[in-house]
């Protein structure tokens, strides 16, 4: 009888201890807001939490990169739009100058205006971003993209290297515009029908020379040059617009993923207060009942079993 009684007391005491441990764990979860406040409480959940937090950090880095890229695209679009206005104005002036009613003196006055656009175009092409990097120099972004020599000739000093930024796992996007591609691809058609490429700066110089010399043939050629330049810039504007749309779509996807991952992480590591409070109440009632039973059994003597 003594062995059975001792075993009963031992079993009951063990159950009381287990019940108290459950209550202590639930109270800790409610106080910390976490299912496993320490890694030792649930190592598997802790590892899953680390992996999910790492994934969320990756998404945050991608978001930051995309926001910087979007800002760069917007600034480039503004610069290209400004260049497009210059090109369109030069095209208008070439049409005006080609009009037979304008005198040689009138064309010299037009040449004065056209010459000013070369300086403006050079300034736009050598613009910098907020980090003091040149937009159109390729990877040589600390080097001025275009340099004008004392004789007025303009040369490109950057390189032809495209820059890509990672915006997702295994996904990259090109983020730079090569200056020589933007300003060096004016298509010029010769009398024999052959096509050559000249820079926008050469186009302006040749137009100014044609105006000052009243060369009607080259003034007409300037119309075609300016139209080609405007078309090229228009194409670039479309490309930048599409790139901005791509970035915006990618940002939306990242936001959706971030919300999803945070919800998964929350369900994995955060305390469900409603469930925890209900379970705590149940366990406290069970503990009280067990303590009451233990107290009654403890008062029993050997004679109570006879």
UniProtKB/TrEMBL annotation:
Residue ranges constituting the Flagellin N-terminal domain according to the UniProt record: 3-140
Annotated Gene3D superfamilies: f41 fragment of flagellin, N-terminal domain (1.20.1330.10)
Segments forming domain Flagellin C-terminal: 227-306
InterPro entries found in the cross-reference section: Flagell_FlgL, Flagellin, Flagellin_C, Flagellin_N
Lipid metabolism found in the keyword field: no
Subcellular compartments: Bacterial flagellum; Secreted
Coiled-coil stretches noted in the UniProt entry, renumbered to this chain: none
One example GO MF annotation: structural molecule activity
Keywords, ordered alphabetically: Bacterial flagellum, Secreted
Cellular component terms per the entry's GO annotation: bacterial-type flagellum hook; extracellular region
Protein's GO biological process: bacterial-type flagellum-dependent cell motility
Keyword Secreted applies: yes
Family per similarity comment: Belongs to the bacterial flagellin family.
NCBIfam families: flagell_flgL (TIGR02550)
Descriptive protein name: Flagellin N-terminal domain-containing protein
Organism of provenance: OM182 bacterium BACL3 MAG-120619-bin3
Lineage: Bacteria, Pseudomonadati, Pseudomonadota, Gammaproteobacteria, OMG group
